[in-house]
Amino acid sequence: MTESREPHQSIGPATMRHLREVLDDHARFWGTRDLRALHLPTLIHEFPQTCLVATSGNEIHGYILGFVTPAHIAYAHLIATRDDTRGTGLGRRLYSAFATAAHPLGATHLKAITTPTNHTSINFHKALGSDTQLVEDYNGPGQPRIVFTRNLNPPL
Length: 156
Description:
By secondary structure, this protein is of the alpha+beta class. The chain has helices at residues 16-24, 26-30, 41-46, 90-102, 119-127; strands spanning 2-3, 9-13, 51-56, 59-68, 73-81, 109-114, 131-135, 145-151. It is 27% helix and 32% strand. The protein is globular.
């Protein structure tokens, strides 16, 4: 578990209890976008090292769900910070903790995707130093995605 710059906030492994709480409080993390179906319990069960949650006391402030692929890519499936913690650097700290956890598992690159209209995510990943590429039909016919990639050396 790593300490953050925020007082009493720590980042550590996500549990099924955390996942239930995030889903119960989904709107605080995602607003009106309903992404509950993307919160796969299998990720927490099978990739406990790389599914992380930021907490302070009993409150969840943010989380990242991801895994390392056989091609040594640390794939960030979902990352979210609660509405009242945005702009504090928590998203960057979550990504950094994810990269730190993924490195001993062989990860050499970071990857994430988003929709072309998700300007908040695009700007965030660009600020992290990610390369961006629009890939047509990435998620099926007529469903383009922005693909973010970043070398993990140097670390985040």
